[in-house]
Amino acid sequence: MGLDMYLYGATHKYDGETFYSEITLKRVAYWRKHNAIHAWFVKNVQNGADNCATYDLGEQSLKNLLMTCNEVLNNPTVENAMAVLPTQEGFFFGGTDLTDEYELEYYLDGLKYTVEVIKELLNDNRYDYYCYQSSW
């Protein structure tokens, strides 16, 4: 039990002759208890609704998240992290006290992973759009 987060790449096929449409989702990222990343999605993609629904997002949202993660990684202090990409408490959402060395390391590792995934996706161009979903 806890915060699980998924990013899916979506491809959309449409046959205009038969009006057949198919959307295929592939999981392209997974986070566990990275509540600051989740809070970013809730605020910037989900319009504040934290409800475990699936939300569509485009490349610009990924670029914005990439920029936010890099802003913290370029100055990885607790103060900067909490100002730029703060943690969020929640039902089994994981640690939020970045003054704890282990929690800060876990937080920064999640940002590094996020940067790697987004860079790969932006260079790939195989997906039409993306979807984010969380569960707990």
Summarize the structure.
With 136 residues, this protein is of the alpha+beta class. The chain has four helices and four strands; from the N terminus they run ββαβαααβ.
Topology:
Layout: E1 4-15, E2 20-32, H1 35-44, E3 54-57, H2 59-73, H3 78-84, H4 101-124, E4 129-135
Antiparallel strand pairs: 1-2, 1-4, 3-4
Total beta strands = 4
End-to-end C-alpha gap:
6 Å
Unreliable stretches: none
What's the number of structural domains? 1
Mean of all residue-level pLDDT scores? 95
Determine the oligomeric state from the structure.
single chain
- Note the overall shape: elongated
Largest sheet: 4 strands, antiparallel
SS field, number of helical segments: 4
Helix content: 40-55%
Q: Which structural class do you get from the secondary structure elements?
A: alpha+beta
Report strand %.
25-35%
Question: What would you say this structure looks like, in words?
Answer:
The structure is a single chain. The chain has one domain. Helices cover 41% and strands 26% of the residues. It contains 4 helices and 4 strands. Strands 2-1-4-3 form a 4-stranded antiparallel β-sheet. Helix 2 packs antiparallel against helix 4. The longest helix has 24 residues, at 101-124. The chain starts with a strand and ends with a strand.
List keywords for this structure.
136 residues; alpha+beta; 4 helices
